[in-house]
Specification:
Layout lengths: L5 E5 L5 H11 L5 E5 H7 L1 H8 L4 E7 L3 H10 L7 E5 L4 H14 L7 E5 L7 H6 L5 H15 L4 E3 L5 H8 L4 E4 L18 H7 L3 E4 L1 H4 L4 H13 L1
Parallel strand pairs: 1-2, 1-8, 2-3, 3-4, 4-5, 5-6, 6-7, 7-8
Helix pairs in contact: 1-3, 2-3, 4-5, 7-8
């Protein structure tokens, strides 16, 4: 069943001025902006705060380490007040529980970010997973990691739109489902292997979609973001 689906604009650049211009352009259409490893490593976390400004921040750092380190990292990031924060489900139950505990302790109750567990990256397909020792394919692995994340108190999952339906069947409406690998009709897939259009992801039941290059590499990023938001609105 179709649901209200929001747009997260991925600002994948190393340049603060470029990121800020993109953020301003997409802010009328996007419910949040994503800043991740590339930008944070190049520009620093103060630049993350400056670019996000008053726009809700999807802080996509995909934390993955021993539980104590991940918990400490979550506490250290609390001053940024992200709306959403990612970690890898493959880090295990104890790591995810440590992140949730750190969120509960470091953030005010009304400002705690949604913790999102990354299941299987959308750049990976069954063959690539088999090379890492996952023999039963992306869908089965996503379901396995999704169930583990929910047991660990995580708020939602980052998954391909192709895994939304089985996750909803297994976990119901409780988890927030955020889907990268979204490409408007006619866009190139690039390095993404498990993709859908914005409208297809909405119909599948995504709560949020993440779109980067089809917006930021467009001649008019504001218009590109507005077109995607219109498609999501149905």
């Amino acid at each position: 069943m179709a649901r209200q689906t929001g747009l997260i604009a991925a600002l994948d650049t190393q340049d603060p001025a470029t990121a800020k211009a993109w953020a301003q352009a997409v802010s009328p259409s996007a419910g949040a902006v994503k800043l991740g490893l590339e930008f944070a490593y190049a520009a620093g976390f103060q630049a993350v705060a400056d670019v996000a400004g008053s726009t809700p921040l999807f802080l996509d750092l995909k934390l993955h380490d021993i539980p104590n380190t991940v918990g400490a990292a979550v506490r250290a990031l609390s001053y940024l007040r992200p709306r959403m924060l990612t970690l890898h489900a493959s880090g295990g139950r104890a790591m995810m529980e440590a992140a949730r505990q750190a969120c509960d302790e470091a953030f005010p109750a009304d400002a705690r970010p949604a913790l999102l567990a990354v299941t299987v990256l959308t750049s990976l397909d069954d063959h690539a997973l088999a090379e890492t020792g996952v023999a039963d394919g992306a869908r089965a692995h996503v379901l396995r990691l999704g169930k583990l994340a929910m047991q660990a108190g995580i708020d939602g999952l980052v998954c391909s739109a192709h895994e939304i339906a089985p996750l909803r069947d297994a976990l119901g409406d409780a988890p927030l489902l955020v889907t990268p690998g979204i490409r408007p009709a006619g866009s190139q897939a690039g390095d993404q292997k498990r993709v859908m259009t914005p409208g297809e992801a909405r119909q599948a039941g995504a709560d949020w979609i993440v779109v980067g290059r089809p917006i930021t590499q467009a001649a008019d990023p504001a218009a590109a973001a507005a077109a995607i938001a219109a498609e999501l609105a149905g």
